[in-house]
Amino acid sequence: MTPYIIRLMKNSPKLPEHKLDVRLMAFDLDDTLLTKDCTISPATVETLRLAAQKGIYVVLCSGRMEDGIMPFARQLGLEGTEAGRYIIAINGCSIYDLQQKKEIYLKNMDSEILLRADEEATRAGFYTEVYSPDIIFYPEETKWTKLDVDLCKVKGQVVENYRQFLKDGKFPKMLIAGEPERIKVLEGKLKEMFGKDAVVFTSKPFFLEILPPNCGKGEAILWLAEKLGIKKEQTAAFGDSMNDESMIRLCGHGIAMCNGLEAIREMADYVTEQDNNHDGAADFIRKFIL
Length: 290
Known about the structure:
Shape: globular
Largest sheet: 8 strands, mixed
Strand content: 15-25%
Helix content: 25-40%
Number of helices: 12
Strand order of the largest sheet: 5-4-3-2-1-12-13-14
Radius of gyration: 19 Å
């Protein structure tokens, strides 16, 4: 077999051989459902509305907080329907019921883990941030905190006596931002330090995240599916990056975007034919789910 053919096979999408039985679909936002200008295209909106009309739950599943997800939920226009009533926020730490207007699932970090992570990050020259449902808190405003606030489109707030704030508060997630090469080194240190006591990963090369143990998008999706009486085999998840790893791995059908990380594409059951800028998720849904 020639090297050219081998490269073609390696880069070819993995596709189903028949229609998939799916009752719940979960979608990462950035670089998955959203285009490069951070919008959901009209064609994708139409496809997701059609899926909801057929009774398939459409769940936005993001590292953003609830307030950062809501503009996209409103764009879909499904929040008043049964199929569109749930969103999963903060990389699986929170599930929000849009009809009851309340959080139905929440996992928070242990304050001791937060303090140790902050100490290690500070020693390495980083500032940490922690999330509430609508505000990102940090000890000092930097270009990195501004980047995160701007991406999430939520409020940021400087906190005096930040370490006491970490000790006293309840927070689902800590984020550390900085140059990718240095972030990678810190990621290794924190993974070794915490082991199974925390989930540590990079959601973007410059964003290092720390979550409670046994917490992730996949765990939250399966919790919601069980609540709704949906089998694991009837769940599907679309993602592109390492914060999507648990849902790609745990859901019945893990679907990676063709523009996603190689590690995510390799672990996925299927890979889309189109990228996020060309309605990749919608194209897959029309061909293999609806």
